[in-house]
Design a protein that fits this description.
The chain has 241 residues and is α+β, with helices and mostly antiparallel strands. 47% of the residues lie in helices and 17% in strands. Helix 1 packs parallel to helix 3 (99-111).
Length: 241
């Protein structure tokens, strides 16, 4: 990594060390993985991989870092990337910043996910989904939600940057398609914004009332998975002997 990149990684480490809700569980020159628990108690995993020798439209360079965000209601959903985990089409706005800075912007946005959801409706949709609803969803985008049924259709084409090559747009508009965090402010009055925020906070408060039961179920599920992992390990040791 370059010196600016190394300094940005140090900043990322300081952010992770400053809170128990942010964990860097992989850090190499080619792969960085960070796990975050938001204030909504949802879990997110940010995967960043170094891509070499590929053309990147947004930065105009041949070497770049790609990002993906996996989300789930329970920590186990994100750790094991099971059928209840989904992908969020979220990317930092300034792709020219050092990699650590870009990941920090994602970390802070997801750590404060309730406030971020006021600016990004896609994230708000994820927050209000129940765990069973997430079982049928593959991807959250700005324009649509991609379900498993849609992926199974023969004529379904997965949306991507290649589908938009012929669209005439400036760089800021293109960035907005990829879920950039910084959006133009909505043209609404202050009172309307306060009403919107109050309604959203009431919605989140209602969801929080069910969080205790969900946490109990998550703990039970984790204990079950830990027990399965333990006996798998014991079986492997017995087979080795």
């Amino acid at each position: 990594m370059t010196e600016p990149e190394l300094r940005s990684i140090e900043m990322l480490q300081s952010v992770a060390n400053g809170t128990s809700n942010v964990e860097i569980f992989m850090l190499t020159n080619e792969c960085i993985k960070v796990r975050v628990q938001g204030e909504s108690h949802r879990w997110y995993q940010i995967n960043s991989d170094f891509q070499e020798g590929m053309n990147h439209q947004l930065s105009g360079t041949t070497n770049h870092w790609s990002h993906s965000v996996t989300a789930g209601r329970w920590q186990n959903d994100v750790v094991h990337e099971n059928q209840y985990s989904v992908n969020l089409c979220l990317h930092p706005q300034d792709q020219n910043l050092p990699i650590g800075d870009r990941i920090v912007s994602l970390v802070l946005a997801l750590y404060n996910d309730i406030k971020t959801a006021l600016q990004i409706p896609m994230l708000a949709q994820f927050l209000i989904c129940t765990r069973e609803m997430l079982n049928e969803i593959v991807l959250f985008q700005d324009t649509m939600i991609v379900t498993q049924a849609m992926m199974n259709e023969d004529e379904w084409e997965f949306p991507g940057p290649q589908d938009d090559e012929d669209i005439d747009m400036n760089e800021n508009e293109e960035m907005d398609m990829y879920g950039a965090f910084e959006r133009d402010e909505l043209e609404v009055s202050t009172d309307e914004m306060l009403d919107l925020q109050q309604a959203w906070e009431q919605e989140i408060h209602g969801l929080a009332l069910n969080q205790e039961e969900e946490s109990r179920l998550e703990k039970k599920e984790k204990e079950k998975q830990d027990l399965i992992d333990f006996w798998d390990l014991m079986t492997d040791k017995l087979d080795d002997k």
